[in-house]
Amino acid sequence: MAASRALSALRLQAVSRPPLVACVRSNSNRAAISHLHRQLYGRLYPVLLVNTDGSTVRLRYSEPKRILMMPLDSSTLPEAERKARLRRHFPSKPKAKEEETFEGIDLDTYKKFWKK
Q1: DSSP string, 77-100
Q2: Which GO terms describe its biological process (predicted)?
Q3: In the chain, N or C terminus with fewer CB closer than 10 Å?
Q4: Rounded to an integer, what is the distance from CA 53 to the centroid of its chain?
Q5: Where are the alpha helices (DSSP H) in 22-109?
């Protein structure tokens, strides 16, 4: 009887232990190589905001960034500048090169390089 109690106590201890896993901190303080993996930051960071006219404003932003650029409204641009911007964004496809033909080449001048 005492042996069975000891055996059952050993089984309970084996069952009640958590499985062996590496220590993992699942919070915002864990080590990160590229950036902190957070949804919300605890403070505001100084950021340079660049307006569409080129003027800059220093403000405090919720994410640590250096520069924020406001999007440019293309409907307010003149037609020529708008088309130039579109050409820079979407360049034309490279033109296919013409293949060389051997019609204009005199083959007798290169006859000495041929092996007989």
Answers
A1: S-HHHHHHHHHHHSPPPPPPPPPP
A2: translation
A3: C
A4: 28
A5: 79-89
The DSSP element (H or E) to which 51 belongs, if any, is none
Closest to 49 measured CA to CA, from 38, 63, 39? 63
The pLDDT tens digits for 78-116 are 999 999 988 888 888 888 888 777 777 888 888 888 876
CB 47 within 8 A of CB 59: yes
Q: Mark residue 59 as left, alpha or beta (left: phi above 0; alpha: psi -120 to 50; beta: remaining).
A: beta
**What's the pLDDT at 101?**
76
- Alpha-carbon gap, residue 37 to 19, rounded angstroms: 27
| Contact by Cβ (8 Å): 37, 31 | no
